[in-house]
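Minutes, project check-in
Item: structure for the 168-residue chain
Input as provided by the requester:
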Amino acid sequence: MLNQRLEVTVRNARPSDAPALARIFRESWRLAYTGILPANHLEHEIQRRDATWWRRAIAAEHNLLVVEHGEHIAGYATCGRARGGRRDTGEIYELYLAPIYQGIGIGEYLFEACRATLDRLGLERLIVWALVENERARAFYVRCGGRATRKACVRFGNAVNARIAYEW
């Protein structure tokens, strides 16, 4: 068996990353949410988050991280103070990898970089929300040590989906 090391780097996003982030968003959302979200809502979100949208997000978002595998951007994450949560709680808002990079350990690097970012902000607790039907995401957060603590509903277009909070 070949012993290969992952060449992984996590850094802050740059404006030049925008086309890659648009592609990763499109590919990862289609893989994760086809059959879960209404098709028209899914396609609307994908079209909305084009390279122009990502350039604006990079300029405005201080905690938008990208993970690189060698020379290629493999995924991204955003994190910060939890929405509607306790003052000591941080949240990972989004964490997505291009499908080709899923399941090989790169997501854990990105997850830990988010945790380090939240630690630097003085946030002691962490919450992440995942749709109940997104079994890949739920399994990932369990592998990272999260425990399911509560459920809520979220609306996507005309559909209502259940989501689960994982906390550390």
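Outcome recorded: The radius of gyration is 16 Å.
No further action items on this chain.
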